[in-house]
Amino acid sequence: MQPRATLHDVARLAGVSAKTVSRVYSGSSSVSPETRERILEAAKRLHFRPNTLARNLRQGGKTATVAFVMGDIRNPFYFQVAAGIEQELTKNGFTMLLASTGDAPESEPVVVDALLRQLVRALVLIPIAGDQSYLEGERHLGTPIITVDRPANDLVADTVVLANRSGMAEAVRSLTALGHRRIGFISNPSEMYTLTERLAGYRQALAEAGVADSSSWERLGNDRAISPESQVRSLLDSDDPPTAIVTGNNRATMGALRELKARPEEIALIGFDDFELAEMLGISVVAHDPIELGRAAGRLAIERIEHHAGPTRLIEIPTRLVKRGSGEIPAPGPRAD
Amino acid sequence: MQPRATLHDVARLAGVSAKTVSRVYSGSSSVSPETRERILEAAKRLHFRPNTLARNLRQGGKTATVAFVMGDIRNPFYFQVAAGIEQELTKNGFTMLLASTGDAPESEPVVVDALLRQLVRALVLIPIAGDQSYLEGERHLGTPIITVDRPANDLVADTVVLANRSGMAEAVRSLTALGHRRIGFISNPSEMYTLTERLAGYRQALAEAGVADSSSWERLGNDRAISPESQVRSLLDSDDPPTAIVTGNNRATMGALRELKARPEEIALIGFDDFELAEMLGISVVAHDPIELGRAAGRLAIERIEHHAGPTRLIEIPTRLVKRGSGEIPAPGPRAD
DNA sequence: TACCGAATGTCCATCGTTGACATGCGGCTG
DNA sequence: CAGCCGCATGTCAACGATGGACATTCGGTA
């Protein structure tokens, strides 16, 4: 197994000095076309590839990699986000270092530290630990830090999130416009921030329609042992059952679907998060584009790498209410104004 | 903006030589407890983080990263694979560099080259270019190369694939056991290798049941302009319509579902690839575990990094026929033996 | 003729870390 | 007490590429 070819090997074979080879690869000053040709020829023969480690080291740790740290790696949402980030990075000549915390808050600093040792040029993070203040030092060293899907805690950082609140409010408003007042909110145990935002949007829209207290229709799924199905069941079997339901996320929608399918009632349903068969099944949803969320984060990272300046930014990715039928069932009976 | 602290800064503050600090971090030889304590104290105060670039350079390019190159980044299948790879890598102290070719064959060598310059310790690749012989040189330098989902062309490399052929054969056999003989095969334009394998499994199982020529029931989707829906339509509207259909991949299943839903005929259906709502909809499928596919690739990469030796390996990840109803509809009328 | 710019070379330093080797010192053995 | 051992630590060069400062050669031009 022969060792990897270096600049010097190429120089020797091409009969030039190492400096000239370096000039060809870094494009710093001019090299005559014939020499360049000869060098590239030699490089090809030796399978030469410039050593990025050495170059980056020499240039003071200016790598072309950006780290993305996400939670549970099996969550398709995060991967969509990753896809968006990767698209933007690649387009700009950066590559992505990917790591996951496995949804264990205590592993976040460890994983992040390992990546920062590689001198990534920016850090994109889906915060999972309760506190990101450990990144304060790195931020002072000039590494852009961008959180996605939710803001960081105890750290000043750019943030890209979905329009959770307004998206949910829009959905609920479309239901109140059809006469619904008793609207259930079902959620899975899920991320605090997005849940509270969506819940706030729900309450706000209900308040606008004159419903001040919705607590008896809220099923927030704080207990992991309770399935969304059973929450829908308890809601519909209660004394004052809702005529419509909104769900706080994908899995809650799936649960609600399963339960509603097994029941005679005609309940309006709008889910948060789109899914592949929603169209075929006629399910109305608050759709959003996770890839775009990632793209926005990627663009922001690159912008920050190129011009550090500027105040912290919060970007909201808009959602879209997609009406497919399930959310357009009017409230039964006389309008309960 | 102060510069990053180095070993020397820590050494100066702790009143020792840089080498001693290095020893603390690399754990190579012993340092007295008091000295170690003093050094860690100084390091913490300076927010010191060892520079991986320098370390790896010094150690002859032995990084702890593995590259994964995939095709279309929006394909959820690939991300599941990526998740599996990442799991195994992280467990073993490696991190993953992720890049996509955007399904453009000509960009594969470019993307791969960029990653190899970073001196990755292994390359996991979903081949998309027609020819991977350009990796021959790198292979000789000792970099393990592992292809996933399909074998490389013109390159000796370890490979991890699904049991496409036997999985499809099992599905078709379950249909022939129910009396079906006229079984349609629908595919989307998709990757050559997996398609031909699945098709071979289909033909083989039909042959076992005495059907020698199935070509009139095959719709291979070579033309991107033709939707799976219309293929199902043309199949069912033909002179000799099938009584059952198998699909070659997820998107073909979706198309078939849409079309079958709109028709009166009761056609048995088994899809290749599982999907979220398949259970609710009662769709039988040939299921497989993309995460496991990734894990196997990750494990193989690590094994190769640790002990290079050994002949090339081909690993097949088993599939599982999941019966949910749609594939258990018996053939109508008298058995058409 | 003298000067100019382009193309290339020489030489050395540098990025941050570590391997090879050296040093100093206290303790144990014969 | 000489001689040796091993621990804790230090010195120096090297990993591969590049930047700076400068020298050299050569053909062209004022």
Helix content of chain A: 40-55%
Radius of gyration of chain A: 27 Å
Q: Within the largest sheet of chain A, what's the order of strands?
A: 2-1-3-4-5-11
- The proportion of residues in beta strands of chain A is 15-25%
Topology, pairings included?
The structure is a homodimer of 337-residue chains.
Chain A: H1 7-14, H2 18-26, H3 33-46, H4 52-58, E1 65-70, H5 76-91, E2 95-100, H6 108-116, E3 122-125, H7 136-140, E4 145-148, E5 158-162, H8 164-176, E6 183-186, H9 192-208, E7 218-219, H10 228-236, E8 244-247, H11 250-261, E9 268-272, H12 278-281, E10 284-287, H13 290-306, E11 314-317, E12 320-322
Parallel strand pairs in A: 1-2, 1-3, 3-4, 4-5, 5-11, 6-7, 6-8, 8-9, 9-10
Antiparallel strand pairs in A: 10-12
Chain B binds a DNA duplex (30 and 30 nucleotides) through residues 6-8, 16-23, 25-26, 28-32, 35, 50-51, 53-61.
Structural write-up:
2 copies of one chain form a homodimer. Chain A is an alpha/beta fold and 337 residues long. Chain A has 13 helices and 12 strands. In chain A, α1 crosses α2 and α8 packs parallel to α9. The longest helix of chain A has 17 residues. The model of chain A has no long low-confidence stretch (mean pLDDT 93). Chains A and B meet through α4, α5, β2, α6 and α7 of A and α4, α5, β2, α6 and α7 of B. Chain B binds a DNA duplex (30 and 30 nucleotides) through α2 and α4.
Keywords:
homodimer, 337 residues, alpha/beta, 6-stranded parallel β-sheet, 6-stranded mixed β-sheet, 13 helices, 12 strands, DNA-binding
